[in-house]
Design goal:
There is one protein chain. This protein is an alpha/beta fold and about 400 residues long. About 40% of the residues lie in helices and about 15% in strands. It folds into two domains: about 140 residues, Aspartate Aminotransferase, domain 1 (Alpha-Beta Complex), CATH 3.90.1150; about 220 residues, Type I PLP-dependent aspartate aminotransferase-like (Major domain) (Aspartate Aminotransferase, domain 2). The protein has a seven-stranded mixed β-sheet with strand order 2-8-7-6-5-3-4, sandwiched between helices. The protein has a three-stranded antiparallel β-sheet with strand order 9-12-11. Strands 1-10 form a two-stranded parallel ribbon. Helix 7 links the parallel strand 5 and strand 6. The longest helix has 24 residues. It binds glutamine. Glutamine binds next to helix 1. The site of glutamine has 7 residues, from helix 1.
C-alpha cells in the first residue's frame, strides 16, 4: 500500500505516556506523567453538572463562552498584567495544546525557524516538527538551566520567525525573571520576532518568586501569544481546557483554525470552569503552599539518595541527575535503564531524561519526577525510593 504521510514518519509513543503504560502493567506510583491526582474543586464540578443537566450542551462560539472569556480578560489583566483591551484578545481552547497548535499554524510557514530552549517539553518539539517548522535549539546550562543569551543572539537568522518559551519550565523548573524577559524582548524587537509563551504552571512558583508574563513588558504584547490552561491549576488535566491571550489579529486566525479543527472546547465543561473565578483567592495560596511542601519532600528524598539537581524555581517537576548513582548501583547506566530500575526496585515511575533533549546523550543521566500527587501517595513513593536506594 502507499505510505502514510511523511509528517508522521518519526512519531513514536512519547516517553511521558510510556511510563504510564508501563506502570499500568507493573503497578506502582507514577511520578512520571504530569497528571495531578488531587481533586478538581467542587464549584467547578457542580458548574459542569448544572450545565449538563440544563442542556447547555450545544456548540459555543469557537473562541469560548462569553462568561469565561470575560473572566479570563480580568484574570489576564490583573494576575498577568497583560494589556488586554477586550475579549477579542482571548480564546478558550481544547487544552493549552489546542492553543499551541493553532498558534503555530497561525505563525509559521513550513521551513520557518523557531527557537526553543533545552531541556524542552517534547510535545512542543514534536508538534513543531510535524508542522514542518525548523527547530533551532538553545541548550540550557545545568544544573539550573540558565539561558545562554549570547548563543540565542547568535542563533537568530533571517529565517527565524519566533521564539518559544515555557515559564515556569517543564521539565527544567526554571522561572524566567523579569531581567531574563527584558533581554529576550530586546532580541525579539531587534529581529522582529514573535514569541509563544507557555505559562501553564504560572501558579506554581517557589521561595517568594513571582511569575512574570512576557506580554506584560512594555512593547511585548503585540508580538506575544500567551498560552495557559486550567489543567494544572485546578487539577483537571482530562477536561482539556486551555486558553490563549494575544493581539486580536493573531487570536482571530487561531480561532478560525480552532473552528476548523474542533469547532469549540466542550461547552458544559467551559460553564463548569467558569465557576473557578468565583472561588476565594486563598485557593492560590493553599495551592502554592501544597506544592512547596511536596517539592521539599521529593527534593530532600532525591538528594538523600544521591540525585543531583537544583531545586525547581517553579512548575511541579524535578529534573534530577543520577550519574553519581551509576557508580553505586547497577541498573543506572542510562535514563531508560534507570527508569526500569526504579520501577522494578521501588515501584516508582519517572520520565526518561532523553525525552527533553535533542541529543539522547544530553539526557542520558536524567530522570524527571513529578510531585503533583496526593501527599500520602508522594510520601509512600518517597519511602519506597529511600527503602530501595538510600
Ligand atoms: N504536561 C504533562 C507532562 O509533561 C502531561 C502531558 C502529557 O501527558 N503529555 O507530563
Amino acid at each position: 500500500m502507499k505510505p502514510l504521510a511523511r509528517r508522521t514518519d518519526n512519531l513514536v509513543q512519547s516517553n511521558i505516556r510510556a511510563v504510564t503504560i508501563l506502570l499500568n502493567q507493573t503497578g506502582g506510583i507514577n511520578l512520571g506523567q504530569g497528571i495531578c491526582d488531587m481533586p478538581t474543586p467542587d464549584p467547578i464540578k457542580r458548574g459542569a453538572h448544572e450545565a449538563i443537566d440544563s442542556d447547555r450542551s450545544v456548540y459555543s462560539y469557537y473562541g469560548g463562552i462569553d462568561r469565561l472569556r470575560e473572566s479570563l480578560l480580568r484574570k489576564g489583566r490583573e494576575y498577568n498584567d497583560i494589556p488586554l483591551s477586550s475579549t477579542n484578545n482571548i480564546m478558550v481552547t481544547v487544552g493549552s495544546t489546542g492553543a499551541f497548535v493553532t498558534a503555530i499554524f497561525s505563525l509559521l510557514n513550513p521551513g520557518d525557524e523557531i527557537i526553543i530552549f533545552e531541556p524542552f517539553y517534547g510535545y512542543h518539539v514534536n508538534l513543531l516538527q510535524v508542522m514542518g517548522a525548523k527547530l533551532i535549539i538553545i541548550p540550557g546550562t545545568p544544573p539550573d538551566w540558565q539561558v545562554d543569551f549570547d548563543a540565542l543572539r547568535a542563533a537568530v537568522t533571517d529565517k527565524t520567525k519566533a521564539i518559544l518559551l515555557n515559564t515556569p519550565g517543564n521539565p527544567s523548573g526554571k522561572v524566567w525573571s523579569r531581567a531574563d524577559l527584558e533581554t529576550l524582548l530586546e532580541i525579539l524587537q531587534k529581529h522582529d520576532l514573535y514569541a509563544i509563551t507557555d505559562e501553564i504552571y504560572e501558579y506554581m512558583v517557589y521561595d517568594g518568586r513571582t511569575h512574570v508574563s512576557l506580554a506584560s513588558l512594555p512593547g511585548a504584547f503585540e508580538r506575544t501569544i500567551t498560552l495557559s490552561g486550567f489543567s494544572k491549576t485546578y487539577n483537571m488535566t482530562g477536561w482539556r481546557l486551555g486558553y490563549a491571550m494575544g493581539p486580536t489579529r493573531i487570536i482571530e486566525k487561531m480561532g478560525l483554525l480552532a473552528d476548523l479543527i474542533y469547532i469549540c472546547a466542550p461547552t458544559p465543561l467551559q460553564h463548569g470552569v467558569a465557576e473557578a473565578f468565583d472561588m476565594d483567592a486563598s485557593y492560590f495560596e493553599e495551592l502554592s503552599q501544597a506544592y512547596a511542601d511536596r517539592r521539599e519532600l521529593l527534593c530532600k528524598t532525591l538528594e538523600n539518595i544521591g540525585f543531583e539537581f537544583s531545586w525547581p524555581e517553579g512548575s511541579y517537576y524535578v529534573l534530577a541527575n543520577f550519574e553519581k548513582l551509576a557508580s553505586r548501583y547497577p541498573g543506572f547506566n542510562d535514563d531508560d535503564e534507570a527508569l526500569r530500575t526504579l520501577v522494578t526496585r521501588a515501584k516508582v515511575g519517572a520520565v526518561a531524561g532523553s525525552s527533553f533533549f535533542t541529543r539522547p546523550k544530553d539526557g542520558r543521566y536524567y530522570l524527571r519526577f513529578c510531585f503533583a500527587k496526593e501527599i500520602s501517595v508522594l510520601e509512600q513513593a518517597c519511602m519506597d525510593l529511600r527503602a530501595a536506594f538510600a
